[in-house]
Amino acid sequence: MHVHIVCELLILLGLANGTPVLVHRLVGSRWSCPLDGGLILSDQQRLFGSSKTIRGIVCSLFATAAGAVLLGMDWRLGAAIGALAMIGDLSSSFLKRRLRLPSGDRATGLDQIPESLFPVLAARHALSLSVLDILVTTAAFLLGEMALSVVFFRLHLRERPY
Q1: What is the domain extent for residue 112?
Q2: DSSP state, residue 60
Q3: Distance of CA 68 to CAs 20, 80, 92, 142, Å?
Q4: With contact defined as beta carbons under 8 Å apart, do 15 and 142 qualify?
Q5: What is the DSSP letter of 101?
Q6: Structural domain tally of the chain?
Q7: pLDDT tens, 90-130?
Q8: Which residues are registered as beta bridge partners of 40?
Q9: Could you write out the three-class secondary structure of 9-57?
Q10: In a domain, 96, yes or no
Q11: CB-CB contact of 4 with 129 (8 Å)
Q12: pLDDT band, residue 21 (cuts 50/70/90)
């Protein structure tokens, strides 16, 4: 197992998924435009929901690209990791809306696995990841996100302590 690469991936996944939340806390709703434009589908639910914004995605891509450079990786790999983490997050939001779960509601596994597994699978060749590396990274992200969410709630970075 490549422990240092797993750690670097976890840092990039943290940047990808944490940056939109941090930016929202710093600037509020300024420059915030919902990615789905308010689109309501035939099930009377939003496509993604109001918390998924163009600003959040753009900031996530820049943060992961910069983070990759700081870790000695190609910025394009960082941007790809950020993009796929956001695609995973949007996929989760789309499914949660179809399941009629309220925005921000907890869906353990569904909230963490796509946003960590999609980018890790895409990076597997560039980083020579083994199946064990992929499984450990995804599991560590899931468990870490659940554990850190309580800390982030206490720091007022999250609205709910899950």
Answers
A1: 3-154
A2: H
A3: 17, 10, 24, 21
A4: no
A5: P
A6: 1
A7: 999 999 999 988 776 778 888 899 999 999 999 999 999 99
A8: 46
A9: HHHHHHHHHHHHHHHHHHHCCCCCCECCCCCECCCCCECCCCCCEHHHH
A10: yes
A11: no
A12: confident
